[in-house]
Design a protein that fits this description.
By secondary structure, this protein is an alpha+beta fold. The chain has 8 helices and 5 strands. The strands form 2 sheets. The protein has a 3-stranded antiparallel sheet, with no helix packed on it.
Length: about 250
């Protein structure tokens, strides 16, 4: 699925063109929601997904988009005000006309404009039943992720690049990796490792170190550029010199 949004001009209204290509069919449809509408709706949905959207002046912007004047974001322990009804309306605008064509399919999505900031799997495929939702409305929500596996591509041409350059894996078995789980195991050794993991959730802060710039290097010295190879990050102590690296230092 390829989405191309356009703004309103003197000669045409705002609109989004949607191309769908399957193994057996091709469809081209038009949505009345163009660049301005998509920008507004995506921004509103992100107010319910990203707490950073409420920082500074963003709080007034989100309150306006969600029609919650004077709304103050709840503490981090409380959920953000995600608008499932809005997510359903956006789903209808983008997918309703091709719902039969994409039924039960893995979606390869190529977006543009405001849609590049939208995690498509949070769209809602069916109108929520507020009466049946109860205390846990999101558990009963018909998320797009429940109906379709989705893959977002930067461009249609990336499919050709992947088929040209990608190689089939030679691994005989599947691999599951879990990063830094804080789990207590069945014996004392496992419990000790879990305590170490909790202790090393963040590296110790160190003073900033000033590094001489290239312009201050003595004449006659050449800059050396290294390519390839791997960097070893075995301990937290090594990472303290690189504060921009991830700070999780579990054993």
């Amino acid at each position: 699925m390829l989405f191309l949004d356009t703004p309103e001009t003197k000669t045409r209204p705002e609109e989004t063109f949607i191309w769908v290509v399957t193994k057996t069919d091709i469809a081209w449809v038009r949505s009345g929601w163009g660049t301005p509408s998509l920008a507004r709706e995506v921004a509103a949905l992100r107010c319910g997904l990203d707490s950073a959207a409420w920082d500074g002046e963003g709080a007034n912007r989100c309150a306006e988009l969600l029609q919650k004047p004077g709304h103050v974001v709840a503490p981090a322990s409380a959920p953000l005000p995600f608008d499932t009804a809005r997510a359903h309306e956006l789903y209808l605008a983008l997918f309703r006309q091709v719902a039969d064509l994409i039924k039960d399919k893995h979606l390869l999505l190529v977006s543009s404009g405001p849609l590049t900031q939208l995690p498509f799997h949070v769209l809602v495929t069916e109108k929520a039943d507020d009466a049946a939702a109860g205390a846990q409305p999101y558990q009963r929500t018909a998320w797009l992720a429940k109906r379709h596996a989705t893959t977002v591509l930067p461009a249609v041409s990336s499919l050709a690049a992947l088929r040209r350059d990608a190689k089939r894996s030679g691994d005989a078995k599947l691999y599951l990796g879990v990063g830094n789980p804080l789990l207590d195991g069945p014996d004392s050794r496992s419990a000790d490792l879990a305590r170490q993991a909790r202790h090393n959730q963040a590296c110790t802060k160190t003073s900033r170190q000033q590094v001489a710039s290239l312009s201050s290097m003595p004449r006659g010295l050449r800059q050396i550029t290294a390519r390839g190879g791997l960097v070893d990050w075995p301990t937290c102590a090594h990472r303290r010199h690189f504060p921009r690296r991830p700070t999780s230092c579990a054993p």
